Predict the structure.
Amino acid sequence: MANAWKIARRSNVQLPLILVVALAVVLVLLGKAQGTLFDKMRAHATDTMAPVLEKVRVPVAGFGRWMGSITEIFSVYQENLRLKDENARLRQWRNVAIVLQGRVGRYQALLHAVPDPQMNRVLARVIGRANRPFLQTMILDAGRNNHVLPGQAVMDARGMIGRIYLTGNRTSWVILLTDLNSRIPVTVASSSGKVGNIQAMMTGDNRAQPSLELVSRTVTLHAGDQVTSSGDGGLLPAGLPIGTVVADGADGWRVALLADAGSSQDVEVLNFSKPPEAPPASAQLPAEAAGLKPQAPPAPVTAPAQAAAPAPKPPVAAAPKPQSTQAPPPAEAEAVDR
Amino acid sequence: MVSLERTIVPARLRTLTAVVPMLCGLAGVFIANIPISILGGLVPPPLLALAPIYFWCLVRPDLMTPAVTFTIGFAEDVLSGGPPGIWTLAFVLTYALVARQRDSFAGLSGLAAVLGFAAAATIACCVAYISVAALAFLSGTHFPPMAPILGELAMTVLFYAPSTLVVSWLHHKLVGASRGDV
């Protein structure tokens, strides 16, 4: 046994060691400059492992739920009361939402509002998660075969989780919003209503709550402000729900994410390939877009007889009825639209 | 039971046993990087590949060569998904430092052996962190937080004892000491 632990004395590894260290440094620099080669290898490896991951996903998820429920079992009663209270409040909000949805629909019809660009959605299942020191990612069971491409947004039922950054044929990797390399342009809707939307950059730093870097230094955020994607740059659609603003206790702001990347099992990948439709010219809104003729400029005031006399009129028996200068009530406008 | 180091290994098997350290390292990389989070991502996975590198760097450096270490580090880079080349550089530099102090490390036993491995793992994690921080500095992004890499270091040291049990068992059964030492 003792012989097994003896150290081999014949080791002249100095020269190869220096070469290998140099090669490793070159590899780091090469990976910085040309990361696609590594990405292809990773995608291929994940595609190969996908069937195994799909098979072990269910028992592992069950084990994870069981582990999580160990601590929750002692607070079931309190949790039940809290959920009942929350459910009652949400029902009230649901009624408000239905009323507001109808009102927004009428306004859209009135204004001929440009519809949001259609987005294809791919439903995918989370088959793997990796929480490495320098990477926080999840692996989905949808890839290029399902038209999933890098850059597309990944959402769960509550909000945005991250973006696709690597796709294989059958799998894809998601870079989470909390990851060190994640930078998303966002819009912060002020809850106070005193200022309009605030543009900011949300950057991950491997913590649970990404940080916010304001574009403008003159605005102030408030805890509870809503954060959505801004759509700047055209990579992501605007308006995707992300989270709410919270103070980080050090003169900075962070975002409490709505989505829970740790527990999401089914997610949607949003395909934002279609460019947004160009809005109509401002001169056409709202009256002309609603099917009404633009209001005529006021005529110069002259003699009453002249004013009463119509301008050159075609010799027809029934002249067209003069257009009313008042906007019609919403019901009338809807009728015009239709 | 007669271990292989006391037997005359046929020439055909000698090549096969020579790749056991590398296969062990690659298996450690594969197991540690299976993208399954049992504890909900609370703790990072350990660097399981570091235990075979450390063990055979001390015991059989003729089998755990710098090139083999490079290969294992490369596999770790591919499967872990981090910045390319980081773990390759970390493993190779750790190997270089351990190989330079082989006599000191190999003489450790018991708790001191665990501390020796902890020193090696600290070197690897420090190299990886500094490399990523340098890349972040060049890119103008945030420095990575320290807590995750410290967690990975702790998990790696925690898994040293079971890993070494497996590795030493494989060593006695399949590899054995170098023939010059027997």
About this structure: Residues 1-11, 296-338 of chain A have pLDDT under 50 and may be disordered. Residues 135 and 179 of chain A are 6 Å apart (CA to CA).
